[in-house]
Queue: 2 jobs
Job 1
Amino acid sequence: MSILIYFLVFLIGGIATGLPIAFALILCGVATAMVLGGNNVNPQIIAAQLMRGTDSVTMMALPFFVLAGELMNRGGLTNRIIKFCNIFVGRFRGGLGYVTILACLMFASLVGSAVASTAALGAILIPMMVDSGYDRAKSAGLVASANLVAPIMPPSIPMIVYGVAAGCSIKSLFLGGIAPAIYLTIIMCGVWFIVTRKDNLKADTTKYSAQEILKIFINGLWALLLPLIILFGLRGGILLRKLV
């Protein structure tokens, strides 16, 4: 009965009325507590529990990672990542697809959120692929599926949440997520290779001079420094001890 009350309050009193998810969950908790016998639900206890859940140094990293990704996206770092990947794999058949896959891996290592990465890269790469003759549906599907590495590649927001809730070492979770993310990226490239042969996609014929390649490489190289700083900082104990 209590579970039914919880979901009814969540769907009808929360979602249907347009309440934010956080407030809808609070309303569900209060309603369930009252059904279970807590007629005198103390607002001070609810406020104390809310503060206890947010009073974590480690959880403070989440909004800063999201903020860093947003600043990088608005600062043009997304375009630099795309150009950086393009000079390596853009000349192959279906090159923009490989660029998308590698760009998703690199951007995931900056923001740690699949939704943020998909929104940032999809707004740029999907129109770019459509203008180059790629199918829109397959382009959108490629961007969405390539960003599945974001919850695995550090700094992963789900890993931080899980580490805090389960008391696991976030440093170990980060280090353990690198190899699976790379494996998934390689598998995605293999699948895209089959798609390019099936759809007979063409290669990018854009040619870059040596000076342009060097400039793009240097600009894109800075995008790789942030995840390295995070990983080496955690590994060497330079960053907050709470994160390890």
Job 2
Amino acid sequence: MTRHAPLLITLALAGLVSCGEPPTATPPRGPDRAPTPSAQRYPSEDAAWGRYHSKRFQLSFPLPDGKAWRIDDHSRPSLFALHEATSSRVWVQATQEDELVNRQKCEERARALGWVTSTKLTTVEDQTTIGPEAYDSRIWVALDAAKPGGAIEGHVYLFGAFIRRCLLVHVSTLVSSAKDEEVLSERLALARARIVRALTLDAPRVTDDATVPRDKPEIRR
């Protein structure tokens, strides 16, 4: 995501309208109607970010406003994290496959698991890359402007493949209307650069009691 991301989102939204998506009507604001509060931004200061370590998936990744996230890393197949203040969610899962895989097969795996909405998404950015480490990955940033009430949801996906292993990451974040486009763009840029791209894998452990590496500050669960 570049510093021109707000423009990319503007063009993407304009494309939706030009392709036949009806614009959402905005009700007039009367004198007794309170102004809608602006969407909350992710903090940019390093001190406001935490880093969560998943012993189950042997990886860690940063989260903005770290300790405000509710994290479930035990009760479902994927790690799930929720930040209510920004309507943001993170899913992370590593799967062991029966055959050699590439990023396309791992994307198919994610779609089979229901990670990608059936709603048509508008692509903001699409990149193939190597990382984390030797994973062959696709990073896809997309918008869903078909939410009820004129809300817009942004998505950052990573579909990564390494030998017989898939690494799947999905970050979603929601704003109430197009007036918060700049905030949504900023969140997506940070999610791509500071959550998805900053995910790291644990060093190989050669003994059961080996120390698990941790970065500070932590989010303890």
